[in-house]
Design a protein that fits this description.
- The complex is a heterotrimer of chains A (about 325), B (about 260) and C (about 325).
- Chain A is mainly alpha-helical and about 325 residues long.
- Chain A contains 14 helices and two strands.
- In chain A, a hairpin with a 2-residue loop joins strand 1 and strand 2.
- Chain A is globular and about 65 Å long.
- Chain A starts with a helix and ends in a 17-residue tail after the last helix.
- Chain B is of the alpha/beta class and about 260 residues long.
- Chain B is built from ten helices and ten strands.
- In chain B, strands 6-7-8-3-9-10 form a six-stranded mixed sheet, sandwiched between helices. A four-stranded antiparallel sheet of chain B has the order 2-1-4-5, covered by helices on one side.
- In chain B, helix 5 crosses helix 6.
- The longest helix of chain B is centred in the middle third of the chain and has 20 residues.
- By secondary structure, chain C is an all-alpha fold.
- In chain C, about 75% of the residues lie in helices and about 0% in strands.
- In chain C, helix 2 crosses helix 7, helix 2 crosses helix 10 and helix 10 packs parallel to helix 12.
- Classes of the chains: A mainly alpha (about 325), B alpha/beta (about 260), C mainly alpha (about 325).
- Chains in contact: A-B, A-C, B-C.
């Protein structure tokens, strides 16, 4: 199973980490947030990195999943698991409904449309306060329990999130090295050629859009139960941008890159807090510098660097490297 | 029954009539070439057949079934494939993966089958890879299968597009200027490849500017001018047609690029 | 407080005297909303124009555009209030500072990444906008600042609607600048040279156009427009370190609405967006004001995927 070697390695590391660093805030508490972000980043990477469709509104699906779970469990006393399923179903339905019209757009127009979508959902969450609690949010979201085993400590949440992350990663890795994955990448490479090979590009794009939304909704429900309090602030434009940044920073088109990006973007602000007033400035600077010097992202960038160091003498100029610049 | 039957086809872009009331028939197992000056409507014709453009009027029949207005993926499913004038290679994939995309129609696993890595999916993957390697070998590309498409030279990319189209096992392969940008050696190789494709059972519909190639490889030729059929027949007949000579070949000589 | 919510505060500030007659009142209200809408729309138009110019020149979506607006306004406030500079000098210096920021952005953040993909460049500009906001936070803190209007606060009455003199400055200033940009791009060699760079960089280079310089001019011009927009609107909406965010988003939205790459379309998009926002805030609900603007944008894009005024582009296959 050569294909899954890195996967098993990652699984071992993640599962063993809290045993090596017991009671460590950075592992269990921030780790849970990083894990959720990683799940979101993987879902967005399927859409952006593989199918090549920009989305600046992914946080909307995260939010819908979270709020459906919260509302059904707090206001209607539902059991968290069916509520989660309803959240995922509803989010998928909404994604399905807008997928076709929105995915006819390309490039900047698609970016803007998804951005607009995200903002509309966010405003809805803020405005409909009878339903959602408005800007003050919703609290008292009940604890999640798996056959009686209550997920009520940081450590337990860590393991739940890691297991779900590994599951989502495994699914994504399987999809990529399959007919469907090739169809996605073909779609990204040349839509017209993909159509001529018999790929229904419209259906494929919609399909991956819905899948990404579904996974985001799952993450949202988990988030709601883990935090036991949610507010619209977590689901706005900024978070959508952060997710995009995670995917691009880690390396677009790589599942592991998405996880890397999520980890870095979750831990970096926490670590920059020590710089107090300089935090925001430093964050922006780091973002710019990494993207300028490693435009293909960290994972591919580091891979390339290592390759070049190893094959220093065999370096060739690739033909057809774009002469067109951008400034 | 004819393979491809076009009746009264018309397509206009604004005021420009790219195709004007065109009708012709393509029989199976031949190399049928469409030639004409630039702007005569040749690529538009291909785009109409493959469903990328919608015809204004007229019908297109493939194996007796009407395909006018069908989406490209449906046209492909019926057994038509094509290569493009401006390369539409998937540069984000390897050569092998490019051709494996061509096997899309011959495989059936869905997204969730793939996600769960069902045994049927693994079997299909191996099968698709085998088919793809066959197509690569047919086009003389087996040695570069593992290379990134972005690293391949232009001549090989032209052939890669053909391998990819062939992997769909089409009844009809439409080739849009396959010899464009190729030198004499490569053009001669392309000529051999086209004949081999036809001999293997796929009908080839060819658009080309290289007269030498066209005359050598075609069974029938149609000359298009301003979207209308100017002449049709065997290469020799077309070469000697007075209208054609006047409009296109110029002064009684057959030009070879 | 972001510029967006501050604008709605201003809409309330101009609320008309409620009279007992029905129809006259409604017309006056609508007139009021229209006036507010054109004012806000003018600001969006300037920001959108800045987006459009940079996009036209370099295919880049500059998410830091809103920060040009913020820096223009904040620098003016700081220079006049803290350093005691007379207003006119503060404005000139602030604009120059913003132009410098724009030039630096192009030279050190955008130009080095000229081979990067669309999305990478978007992240770079996002990083730049965060960086600039961080600097502003460092230098000026989180406070909200006000700026004195150019010619006083005496409201002008149009029927039952009121207008502040600043509104006229905004609308007039925008008109002048838009006209100037239009003339620049369509009737001067330099302007056309910049457009040439965006159409085909290599060809422009070969034709002897100093592409690097043209890029700097484009960014400098965008920064100028952004700064002016900020300075003109700050007396009404106040300003703070994060005032640029929503404005940047709305400006981007307006540019897309009008059709990316069409500067006059961007201006039209900005005005349209401002009007829609103001009318829906007044007539429907002020809470959903922002959402309605984006909703209209989505509807427009669904019907015309390339924006309202762009020429339809076809891909050669």
């Amino acid at each position: 199973m050569k294909r899954l070697k890195p996967f098993f390695l990652l699984a071992v590391v993640l599962l063993v980490l809290p045993l090596v660093f017991p009671d460590n805030y950075y592992v269990t508490v921030i780790g849970v947030t990083a894990g959720l972000n990683a799940i979101l980043a993987i879902s967005l990477n399927l859409l952006m990195g593989y199918a090549g469709q920009i989305s600046l509104g992914h946080a909307a699906f995260f939010g819908i999943g979270a709020y459906v779970s919260a509302i059904l469990t707090t206001r209607y006393g539902w059991n968290p698991w069916p509520a989660m399923l309803v959240g995922m179903t509803m989010t998928s339905a909404i994604a399905f409904a807008i997928a076709r019209p929105i995915l006819r757009l390309k490039g900047h127009y698609l970016a803007m449309a998804t951005l607009g979508l995200g903002i509309i959902v966010h405003i809805f969450l803020v405005q409909e306060d009878d339903f959602t609690g408005g800007p003050d949010g919703m609290g008292d979201i009940p604890v999640l329990s798996v056959f009686g085993w209550q997920v009520d400590t940081d450590l337990r949440w860590y393991f739940v999130i890691v297991i779900i992350l590994l599951l989502v990663l495994w699914l994504a890795l399987n999809i990529i090295s399959s007919r469907s994955g090739r169809a996605l990448r073909a779609l990204h490479g040349s839509e017209v050629a993909a159509e001529m090979m018999g790929i229904d590009t419209t259906a494929t794009k919609s399909g991956v859009f819905v899948l990404a939304a579904l996974i985001a909704a799952l993450a949202g429900s988990l988030f709601a139960h883990q935090q036991s309090f949610i507010s619209p602030d977590s689901f706005g434009f900024f978070f959508s941008l952060q997710l995009v940044t995670m995917v691009v920073l880690g390396s677009m088109g790589s599942n592991y890159g998405a996880i890397l990006g999520a980890i870095i973007l979750t831990y970096l602000p926490a670590m920059l807090v020590v710089f107090e007033d300089y935090e925001v400035m430093l964050f922006g600077a780091i973002l710019m510098l990494v993207m300028i010097f490693l435009p293909q992202g960290l994972l591919f960038g580091i891979q390339n660097l290592l390759q070049r160091l190893r094959h220093r003498k065999q370096q060739q100029k690739l033909p057809g490297q774009g002469l067109e610049g951008r400034g | 029954m004819a393979l491809l039957d076009i009746e009264a086809l018309s397509k206009a872009f604004g005021g420009v009539r790219a195709i004007a009331d065109l009708g012709f028939v393509v029989e199976e197992n031949q190399v049928y070439s469409v030639i004409g000056p630039n702007g005569a409507g040749k690529t538009t014709l291909f785009n109409l057949f493959s469903g990328i453009y919608q015809a204004d009027t007229g019908q297109i029949y493939f194996l007796g079934q009407e395909i006018t207005g069908h989406k490209p993926c449906r046209v492909a499913a019926m057994g038509i494939s094509r290569t493009f004038q401006n390369l539409q290679i998937f540069f984000n994939m390897s050569a092998l993966d490019n051709v494996m995309v061509g096997c899309h129609l011959r495989t059936h696993s869905r997204l969730w089958h793939a996600a769960l890595r069902l045994p049927a999916v693994v079997r299909e993957e191996r099968q698709a890879e085998a088919w793809a390697r066959q197509a690569l070998q047919f086009c003389g590309l087996d040695k570069v299968a593992g290379m990134q498409a972005s690293a391949l030279p232009y001549g090989l990319l032209k052939r890669l597009e053909i391998a990819r189209a062939l992997a769909t096992r089409p009844r009809l392969l439409m080739m849009d200027e396959p010899a464009a940008g190729l030198n004499d050696t490569e053009t001669a190789q392309m000529c051999v490849l086209i004949r081999r494709i036809c001999d293997a059972g796929t009908t080839v519909l060819l658009v080309e500017h290289n007269m030498g190639l066209v005359m050598q490889v075609s069974d029938r030729v149609m000359v298009l001018n301003f979207g209308k059929r100017l002449a049709e027949g065997t290469p020799q007949q077309v070469q000697q047609d007075a209208d054609v000579i006047k409009a296109y070949l110029g002064g009684g000589e057959a030009d070879g690029h | 407080m972001s510029a967006g919510s501050a604008t709605s505060v201003c809409a309330l500030r101009y609320t008309v005297d409620f009279c007992s007659e029905g129809e006259v009142c409604m017309a006056d209200q609508i007139l009021q909303f229209l006036l507010t809408g054109i004012t806000v729309g003018a600001t969006y138009a300037l920001v959108a124009l800045g987006f459009s110019i940079i996009f036209n020149a370099s295919d880049v979506i500059n998410f830091a555009q809103g920060e040009f607006v913020m820096i223009g306004a904040m620098a003016t406030v700081a220079l006049s209030a803290n350093y005691g500079l007379p207003m006119w000098l503060a404005v000139i210096c602030a604009v120059l500072i913003t132009i410098c920021v724009g030039l630096l952005l192009q030279r050190f953040a955008i130009a080095p990444a000229h081979n990067a993909s669309v999305i990478t460049t978007i992240i770079i500009t996002i990083g730049a906008s965060i960086f600039l906001r961080g600097v502003a936070l460092l230098v000026w803190g989180k406070d909200i600042f006000s700026m004195p209007p150019i010619s006083g606060e005496e409201p002008i009455h149009l029927g039952q609607a009121t207008l502040l003199p600043q509104n006229l400055w905004i609308i007039g200033g925008t008109l002048v600048m838009v006209l100037g940009v239009h003339i620049f791009f369509n009737h001067t060699t330099h302007g056309k040279a910049i457009l040439a760079c965006s159409c085909n960089r290599m060809a422009a280079h070969l034709a002897g156009i100093p592409v690097g310089l043209m890029m700097l001019v484009a960014y400098g011009l965008s920064a100028f427009l952004g700064a002016m927009a900020g300075i003109l609107i700050a007396p009404i909406t106040f300003t703070s370190y994060d005032a640029g965010i929503m404005l940047g988003l709305k400006g981007f939205s307006a540019a897309v609405l009008g059709g990316m790459g069409n500067p006059m379309g961007a201006v039209a998009g900005g005005l349209l967006l401002g009007l829609i926002e103001s009318l829906s805030a007044g007539l429907i609900s002020s809470g959903y004001k922002d959402a309605i603007g984006f909703l209209i944008l989505l509807l427009v894009l669904f019907l015309r995927p390339n924006g309202l005024f762009s020429k339809a582009a076809t891909d050669r296959v």
